[in-house]
Amino acid sequence: MEYKDQVIKxxxxxxxxxxxxxxxxxxxxxxPKGLGRTAPELLDLLGEDSIFTKNCFTAYTAEVAAKxxxxxxxxxxxxxxxxxxxVFQTARDLINAGYEVFxxxxxxxxxxxxxxxxxLDLMQSMGAVITNTETALYDLLKVSGTPEFKKLSxxxx
Length: 157
What we know:
- It contains 8 helices and 5 strands.
- Helix 1 runs parallel beside helix 3 (40-46) and helix 5 (83-96) packs parallel to helix 6.
- By secondary structure, the chain is of the alpha/beta class.
- Helix 6 links the parallel strand 4 (100-109) and strand 5 (129-131).
- The protein has one domain (4-156): Isochorismatase-like (Rossmann fold, 3-Layer(aba) Sandwich).
- The two termini are 24 Å apart.
């Protein structure tokens, strides 16, 4: 996938930021026995407890829906692959379930750039907010000068 290394790096930044700010992280894997596992560096950071296995394309499975409900959160930062299939269907299902979706455009990928762009366009037309890793990080931090800011701002340099 084009830009795979950058997408992995951006997801590492997002996960590290969430963990530092005590925000929940949920990850899914699409049929890992056949398609392979998530990138090892992401798995190391996530830990197995936050990963849900799925066979359908959407990540908004019954298990994930129950987990999200238990967290009482309505805003979702969304990343992953493939933009025009799994990420698109997940965004659609989350929006239909009443969540506000922030799609991190530089933390998603597709095998072909035209599919990536189409996926972004579809999600934006459905109401997803299209953002990027740096904007998301600073939006979560809110202010400079904190210990979290000093640590996390280093991730995007």
